[in-house]
Automatic annotation (TrEMBL):
<dbReference type="InterPro" id="IPR050406">
    <property type="entry name" value="FGGY_Carb_Kinase"/>
</dbReference>
<dbReference type="Pfam" id="PF02782">
    <property type="entry name" value="FGGY_C"/>
</dbReference>
<dbReference type="InterPro" id="IPR000577">
    <property type="entry name" value="Carb_kinase_FGGY"/>
</dbReference>
<feature type="domain" description="Carbohydrate kinase FGGY N-terminal">
    <location>
        <begin position="4"/>
        <end position="246"/>
    </location>
</feature>
<dbReference type="InterPro" id="IPR018484">
    <property type="entry name" value="FGGY_N"/>
</dbReference>
<feature type="domain" description="Carbohydrate kinase FGGY C-terminal">
    <location>
        <begin position="256"/>
        <end position="443"/>
    </location>
</feature>
<comment type="similarity">
    <text>Belongs to the FGGY kinase family.</text>
</comment>
<protein>
    <submittedName>
        <fullName>Gluconokinase</fullName>
        <ecNumber>2.7.1.12</ecNumber>
    </submittedName>
</protein>
<dbReference type="GO" id="GO:0046316">
    <property type="term" value="F:gluconokinase activity"/>
</dbReference>
<dbReference type="InterPro" id="IPR018485">
    <property type="entry name" value="FGGY_C"/>
</dbReference>
<keyword id="KW-0418">Kinase</keyword>
<dbReference type="InterPro" id="IPR018483">
    <property type="entry name" value="Carb_kinase_FGGY_CS"/>
</dbReference>
<dbReference type="Pfam" id="PF00370">
    <property type="entry name" value="FGGY_N"/>
</dbReference>
<keyword id="KW-0808">Transferase</keyword>
<dbReference type="InterPro" id="IPR043129">
    <property type="entry name" value="ATPase_NBD"/>
</dbReference>
Length: 500
């Protein structure tokens, strides 16, 4: 009799549930999207109850579509995006929306922390940036924000669901690490960071390893989804390390690159890599490993923006159409360079005031040039983060790509050409969900080790680099990496003008 496992992936713009067999084959999957709300300048929020409803819906749909007996489903693993923050009551009722990583209202507070307490980075591994719940909590404290004053708990979207579904107050190490409040060496909350935020450990959930099992699903939730109330959920981790796990990028030299709405490049390490230049993060995964790398605000969201610009009313330009247009433009996009900072930027520049910028634009450029330049800009930024990892001794031997961008042949080819390395593609781009599912199997003693996933990851293609293009891109990168330093004060002046 076959057995199955579900990965629940709570992302920035949607929640996905995928049922797998033990070989990684997808049996059923469903996705439910939800919006990002922008109630004020530099704010980015989501409705937590809407996300909960979406999570219940996708699980219910997958259970129905799979049509398997309940006893054949062994468990569910949870993946979630990082850096979300909800002010909540002791009962798990939200007093605020979920403030997400793209929110930069706490820029001044993050800047102040960086000036006055820079050692926090070396204790938490998290860059001092407005993406972090730490900076947001300082903003709330300084403004005496009513939801902050009235709240008993300050939690992520995953913790929100765990509390409401299981009445447990626990958080996995990697989600805790992404708050900027967690000591990555001691595996506990950092007192200095708590003091800066004006809170205590009692206001946070207890950190637990990613294998922690949740049981006793709330009866009304179990009934609505169609699950046995005692089915075990594994608390899992954030989507970054689970994407690495989901493609089998576990050993030194294995680099995973994920491009969805945002994008990231990551490696597992056996020790924290605390970068003096603060270009990258180091988050704890479990008792023996860390996940190190950098996340960019700007991945697929860049193409989505261009898609909206180039689509006429009633006729949407598809990703396939955009890829075809980009493929008609040569490497370098006919001498057009794009800095992809359309929503500010995290790694490696950590500047929420940065702006998207086309450089070299002329009347001869066509849509395909702009699209290709945008694709190249995203990958050049990822490469720049990768150079920081390389500087710290983490070389890139094997590249694994996942996320929605992997559906675009030209975009993956640009990745291979810029890095000058073959790119390995899994059959499914939902690697975070597969990583969450495999972690659940390991937690339930259904598989002997996390590393055994390498034996069963369903891989599709390997894209080889064009080494002539790589040599060209090396020269283009030298220009790309210098441009930000030449114009960043202009971004600040524009931002100040807009604020005033």
């Amino acid at each position: 009799m076959s057995s199955y496992i579900i990965g629940l992936d709570i992302g920035t713009t949607s929640v996905k549930a995928l049922m797998f067999d033990y070989s990684g084959k997808i049996i059923a999957e469903h996705e439910k999207k939800y919006p990002i709300l922008y109630p004020a300048l530099n704010w980015a929020e989501q409705e937590p109850l809407e996300i909960e409803i979406a999570a219940i819906h996708v699980l219910k749909t997958v259970v129905i579509e799979s049509n398997i007996p309940k006893k054949q489903l062994k468990g569910i693993g949870i993946s979630s995006a990082m850096h979300s923050l909800i002010c909540a009551t002791n009962d798990g009722e939200p007093l605020s929306n979920s403030i997400i990583w793209a929110d930069s209202r706490s820029q001044n507070q993050a800047d102040h922390l960086k000036r006055t307490n820079p050692d926090l980075f070396f204790k938490t591994g998290t860059p001092l940036h407005p993406m972090t719940p730490l900076a947001k909590l300082v903003w709330m404290k300084e403004l005496a924000w009513p939801p902050y004053k009235d709240a008993n708990k300050y939690i992520s979207i995953k913790e929100f669901l765990v509390k409401r579904w299981f009445n447990e107050e626990v958080v996995d190490y990697s989600v805790a690490a992404s708050t900027g409040l967690f000591d990555v060496e001691k595996l506990d909350w950092n007192e200095e960071a708590l003091t800066e935020a004006g809170i205590t450990e009692d206001n946070l959930f207890s950190p637990v390893p990613p294998t922690y099992l949740l049981k006793g699903l709330k009866s009304s939730i179990a009934e609505e989804i169609g699950l046995d109330q005692q089915i075990p959920f594994t608390i899992g981790a954030s989507d970054g390390p689970l994407a690495n796990l989901g493609v089998g990028a576990l050993k030194p030299g294995d680099t995973a690159i994920t491009i969805g709405t945002s994008c990231a490049i990551r490696q597992f390490t056996a020790k924290p890599l605390l970068d003096k230049k603060e270009e990258i993060f180091t988050y704890r995964f479990d008792s023996k490993s860390w996940i190190t790398g950098g996340a960019s605000n700007n991945g697929g969201i860049v193409l989505a923006w261009l898609q909206s610009l180039f689509s006429s009313e009633g006729v949407e330009l598809s990703l396939e159409d955009m890829s075809q247009l980009a493929a008609c433009s040569p490497p370098g996009s006919n001498n057009l360079l794009f800095l992809p900072y359309i929503t500010g930027e995290r790694a490696p520049i950590w500047d929420s005031q940065a702006k998207g910028t086309f450089i070299g634009l002329t009347s001869t450029h066509q849509k395909g040039d702009l699209i290709r330049a945008a694709m190249e800009g995203v990958i050049l930024n990822v490469y720049q983060i990768g150079q920081a990892l390389d500087r710290l001794g983490n070389q890139h031997v094997n590249l694994f790509a996942n996320g929605g961008f992997s559906h675009s042949d030209i975009w993956v080819s640009i990745l291979a050409d810029i890095f000058g390395k073959p790119v390995h593609l899994p059959e499914s781009h939902q690697s975070s969900a597969w990583g969450a599912a495999w972690l659940a199997l390991f937690s339930l003693n259904e598989v002997p080790s996390l590393s055994d996933i390498k034996k069963v990851v369903p891989m599709k293609d390997t894209i080889e680099p064009n080494l002539n293009n790589h040599q060209f891109y090396k020269r283009l990168y030298e220009i790309f990496k210098d441009v930000y330093g030449q114009i960043n004060t202009t971004y600040t002046r524009l931002d100040n003008l807009q604020r005033n």
